[in-house]
Amino acid sequence: MVDQNLVRYFKEGLAYGTSLDELKNNLLKEGWSAVEVEAASGAVKGGTTSHSEAIKFILMSLLFLAVISAILYFAFIQKDVSVERIDLKSGIFLDVGNKALQLETDNRSIKVILEEIFSESVKMQIDGKSLSFNLNEDVIINLNDEDEKLLVRLDSIEDGVPQFYFKLIKVEE
Questions:
Q1: Domain spans of the chain?
Q2: Is 136 helix (H, G, I), strand (E, B) or coil?
Q3: Confidence of residue 158 (pLDDT cuts 50, 70, 90)
Q4: Looking at residue 89, what DSSP letter applies?
Q5: What's the pTM?
Q6: Which residues does residue 137 pair with via DSSP β-bridges, in sequence order?
Q7: What is the SS3 assignment for 127?
Q8: Which residue from 145, 144, 169, 86 is spatially nearest to 153, judged by alpha carbons?
């Protein structure tokens, strides 16, 4: 059993900046046995850290938190879906700057996810289909409805934010 008075002596001495060896020597000079001194110093050494080790631990913890925060931001927040109820029948221009959006119409919901932006083209998913769009090129997408299609045109890319034109087209037979 380790003498708690010795453990307290070591903790207080170390807190005041006295070296472990100096504390040990003082106790040995006062008549404490080497076994008792080593047991108490071992108990203290196992539970204490130096000032530089504490700072290193804090910095590593902060770095770890920063990395986890970045991962969570790009995994969840960056691709957060904004929902806008719009009338696609008349057509609308939308900036797809937040990486994803959900277009709500009377009959359906269309999920648009931006994947990559290039200087004159964009790659994105529309309802799970991966498609490429070039500037000012009309693309007509079948929406799994026989009577509705979606017209999509990449109108511009300004400051890395693409602007698309979306229009729902009713197919008359």
A1: 1-48, 50-78, 82-170
A2: coil
A3: confident
A4: T
A5: 0.47
A6: none
A7: coil
A8: 169
